């Protein structure tokens, strides 16, 4: 996570509104391009039982799953029987087991923002 700051936004929003909130802070919804990011975010949310929007989506069905910040979508931490491919699917990070679900992007969730920079 060197070079990045993460922020948990506890306000429940749709995925698109959560992304707008993060962009307004100068970042984006968190991407999870590998095991280091997955482990770090797991530690951040371990004492909650919530699900959090992160930056993955397949809103553009023609290009498949991608991170909103352009990071490579190369590692997958899906829950069993996921993704279930909703019509408009966005990635939610499930704190209970540190896995991902694809949820309807209009569902209301807390979110995690990522911004380049040092604390």
UniProtKB/TrEMBL annotation:
Transmembrane segments: none
Domain C-type lectin: 1-114
Identification of the protein by name: C-type lectin domain-containing protein
The keyword Aminoacyl-tRNA synthetase is assigned to this record: no
Matching InterPro entries: C-type_lectin-like (IPR001304), C-type_lectin-like/link_sf (IPR016186), C-type_lectin/snaclec_domain (IPR050111), C-type_lectin_CS (IPR018378), CTDL_fold (IPR016187)
Pfam families in the cross-refs: Lectin_C
Disulfide bond keyword on record: yes
Domain of life per record: Eukaryota
Record's keyword terms, sorted: Disulfide bond
């Amino acid at each position: 996570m060197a070079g990045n700051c993460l922020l948990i936004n506890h306000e429940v929003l749709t995925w698109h509104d959560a992304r707008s909130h993060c962009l307004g802070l100068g970042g984006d919804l968190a991407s999870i391009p590998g095991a280091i990011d997955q482990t770090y975010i797991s530690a951040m949310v371990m004492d909650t039982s919530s699900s959090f929007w992160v930056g993955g989506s397949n809103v553009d069905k023609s290009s498949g799953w991608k991170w909103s910040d352009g990071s490579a979508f190369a590692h997958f931490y899906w829950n069993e029987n996921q993704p279930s491919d909703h019509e408009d699917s966005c990635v939610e990070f499930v704190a209970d087991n540190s896995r991902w679900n694809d949820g309807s992007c209009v569902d209301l969730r807390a979110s995690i923002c990522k911004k380049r920079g040092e604390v």
